[in-house]
Structures are given as C-alpha cells and as structure tokens.
Give the backbone structure.
Amino acid sequence: MNILITGLITGSMLALLAIGFSLIFGVARIVNIAHTAFYMVAAYCIYYLSVRVGLNPLLSMLTAVAAVTVLGLLVYKFLIDPIREHEGAVLIATIALAMVFQEVTLRLFTGDYRTVDFLITGFFTVGGVKVFYQQLLTFGVVLVTLGAVWFLLMKTRLGLAIRSMAEDREVANLMGMNESRLAMITLGISVALAGLTGAVLAPLTVLNPYMWMEPLIIMMAVVVLGGLGSIKGSFVAAFILGFTEALVVFLVPKGAFLKGSVALTIMILVLLIRPEGLFGVSFEEER
Amino acid sequence: MGLALFYVKKFFKIVRNEVLVLPSRVVVGLFFIVLLGLPLITQDPYIVRIVILTSIFAILAASWDLLSGFTGQMNFGHALFFGVGAYSSALINLHAHIPPWGSVPLGAVVAVLAGLIVGIPCLRLKHTYLALTTLAFPIILTGIIFALPQYTGGEFGLSGVTRFTNSLIGNYYLHVVTMLVTAVVMWKITDSNTGIIFHAIREDELAVKASGINTTRYKLLAFSLSGFFAGIAGGLYAHYMRIAGPSTLEVSMSFMVVIWAIFGGAATIYGPIGAVFILYPLLEFFRIWPEYRTMIFAAVVLVILLYMPEGLIHWIRDKIETECPRCKIRNAATRKTCRVCTAGLD
C-alpha cells in the first residue's frame, strides 16, 4: 500500500515535469536543464510566501506559479533567445542558469532543510497505512492539470500550432505560425507546469537548494523512455519509473542508493529494443 | 656537427615562417613555454597544485571534445570515464600493488572498456536521446558503488592511493607534460583522416555511410579513444588527490566538462583546453568570496555565451586572424594581403 502511494505521487510529479520538458523540447528544440530548477524556485516561493510572509497557502501557491512563469519568460527573452541557433550554447546556458538559481536560493534561504505546511490536514487509514488528504489532493491536481494540458494540445488552435511546430518547424513557419512567439508561449506553459509541480509537491517533500538535481535525471529518463514529444508516453513512463523507484526502495536492501540505478537501467534496456522510446515517433533527419 | 647545424637552422626557419606569422600559433607556443617554465618563476605549492589540477581537467575536457565535439555524439555522462579511470587505477594500485606508472594506463584501458560498454547500446540512438541516455550511466555506477561499500569504499571512496612522486616539481612536470603530450596526440588524431571522418559523421552521418565508410566502427573508435584519454585524466586525478571518491562520477562533473568544452569552442581540441585554463583558475580565484563563487562563475559563463555563442577561443581567433578568400589560408588580422597568394584580404 505504501508502495502504491509513493509510486503514484512520484509518478505524477515526474509526469508533470516530463511533459513540460518535452513540450519545450518539441517546439523550440531547447534541452532545458534548468527545468527542474524552476520547480525548486516555485517550492521556495511558496515557502517564503506562506511561512515567512504568512499568506494564505492557496493564494501563495497561485502567486508562486505566476512568479515562476514570469521569471521563466524573462530568462528566455534575455538569455536564451539571443543564442537560439547555437544548440551547444543554449545547453550550457541552461546548466549555468540552474546553477545560478541554486546559488541564489542557497544565499537567500541557506542550505537548511525547510518544510511547508499541508494545505489540508488529516488522514484516513487503508490497510494499516496512513493516507494523507494532501497526497490525495496532489494526485487530484496532477490529474486535472494533465487533462487540461491534453485538452489544450488536442482541442485548441494553439495546441494545433504547438503540435505542428513540433512536427516540422519549417512547414509550420510557412503556414504562418510565428515561431518565436509560439516558442515563448510554450516556454511559458512549460515553466508554469514546472512551477505547479513545485507548488503541489512542496508540502510533501523537504526543500533544499539541491533538490532540483535528482528529479532532473529521472525526469530526463521519463522523457526518453516515453519518447520525446509524446504526452501519452511521458505519462506512462512516469508511472513506470515512479513505481519502480517505490518498489526498489521498499523491497530491496539498500534500495535508496539503487533506486536511480534500477530506473535508469530499465530506461536503457527499453531504448535498446525501441531506440525512439515507448511511444515516440522517430524524427525525420534534420539537415 | 654539420647535421646538427642543419637541424637548428631548419628549426629556426620553421619558427620564423610557420609559427611567427600567425598570432594563434604564437599564443600556443607561448602557452607551452610559460607552462614548462613556470617552476622557474614560482614554486608556490598552491599555484602548482592549481596548475596540476587544471592540466588534469584539460585532458578531460579535450577528450570530451574528441568524442562529442567531433563526432557529434553528445555525451552527457563523461564523468563515467573519469570515474572509471579513477576507481580502477585506485583499485589496481591498492590491491595489486602496481605503482602508478602501471596503474594509470591500466585504468585507462578499463575506461576504454567502459567506453565500449556505453558506445554499443548508444549506436542506435541519436541527438537528445543519446545525450540523455549517456547521462544515466555514471548515476547507475554511483548507485552500485554506494551499494557495495566493502569493495568501493562507499561514499568515502578509496583512500591511501600512492602518489607518483612526492616532489613538488616532479609532480608538476609529470602532469603538465602528460597534458601537453595527450593534447598534441588528440589534436593529431583529429587532424588525420580519422578526424575528418569524425567531423563528417557529425555533419551528415548518412552521407558518410553512403561513401562506403563503416560509421559504426568509427563511432566506437571515438568512444574508446575518448574513454582512454578521460581514463588517463581520471587515473592521474586519483593518484594526485590520493583518493578516488564518488565525486568523480557526479552529474555536476559531467556538466562541468560540457561547460568547459562548449565555452571554449567545440570541435577544436585547443578550445576546451584553453577554456579549462581560463575557467578553472578563475573558479579558484573566486574563493576570495566563497559564498558567491559558483554564482559568479555561472554568471560569467552566461554573459560570455551571450556575446560569443560559438565559444570564447573561436571568437578570439576570429578577431586576431582572417581567412584568405581565395586560398583559404589563415592570416594575421593586421595584414592587408594574403601571405601566400597575395590576394587582398577583407
């Protein structure tokens, strides 16, 4: 039962992060290493607003998500957009960004472990295991968000534009879609998703400035395993890896050390059989 | 006597006609002379230590460039080769009691094996898939190391590895000369036919295949060469620090290598080396404000990239040299005409 709950929570967190990451990769071909750093910043924002300032938790969550989105857009406009053509430069710019975020949080909030209060308290017991309402709430929010993202991508004109841009940039451009504006919007959505993940997860985890490193790697594994640019793939792969981690932690001795290794080994094994991931479509060679 | 005089004359002729005409070659020559002559000026242990570590990381960054810069096989897990080199040479040194002269090359051979183990599954992957998959390997190994502390020392690593020599100057020359030699070897490799094929694989793998070249073999060759040099760097690091710990396998180590190499300019070999020699001492210099060290470092990287997205060394080279439009030979930027074909420059 513990395995089930941990797996669901980890899986849903990974799904949200991975979808944001693969969206911006699909549209703008940016490998955004700083993606989970935004998640960390959002979590700290909530900590600051709700614990230090004493704002209503719900309000502080909304503010945090908005603030992180604005931050993401500013960073994109001034640091990433000017060097868009140089893939390598964009890559290390995002790494450097993540380092800057980490250091700034370290300065502002020190390296101590922080916690955020639950939004709703209380729990019920199933099969001898406590299930906190907060965990249920987190899971619910994740499901609703995933549904909203799916609706946005599949049923609106903007979603159509995003998907076509991911499929073929040049043709999409010829069809009159403004590439840089679309990249901007997608980046906004992607960062907002990262911020939202931080918001719903902050009460369940311990905050420290290095918390972006671990989910980053597993998130990348999820994206690759599910196939780049595939929402369904990211969703399925997130839960596969989330449950694997939970299983390893609870069942294998010294599992906490090995959870990353096992998850990544699964990813590599799957890639050996299907090089484009579970649900990925192999991209046309870009020349 | 006459023969010796002939070679001395030939040497000066080469220096005058081939080296002094191009500012970049003069800079490389000065770099060699300064590095080799540094102990004459200062023997401060702190400075010597920084230069030694810089040399070790320069080998590492150049070996990343050999693989990822040239063949375009984005490797995000370069720390794997470094860590495997460090751990295996430490294990060989501790358990088989082989002195460092033997254990570093043996460690490098183990790193070649690691290169093949990573390379074979990665043959089918491309671009981002490849980058993100390679990122996984060092983390898997770290997990294994933590899970088997009786063999690997767990999170404390293997300590008590013997040093090459205990003399300051001996250590200095050992590491600096190794760095210079491996750098020249790597540069020669990339300048040879093999290097051209590596380059072609990055630009268009399909066309290389269509030209009847076995790209699989060349990609594996790139993986094992890069693994070999990174393994040497790892072995040197383990023997110099006298410890091989899990920090050699960290994600931040892999990222650091990528930052160094791209910051200097990928696919040049000298770019990453120059970048390490700028960035690593810079990072040490920022120890005067220890709290802001990493932040300033990241900010410097960001700002420089904003203005020179091609890489710092590329940018400098383009400023001090121009390419002749007719014969494609490089000239000092001060010249009005090409030094070979006398066509007008600009």
In short: Chain A touches chain B through 48 residues (CB under 8 Å). Residues 39 and 195 of chain A are 5 Å apart (CA to CA).
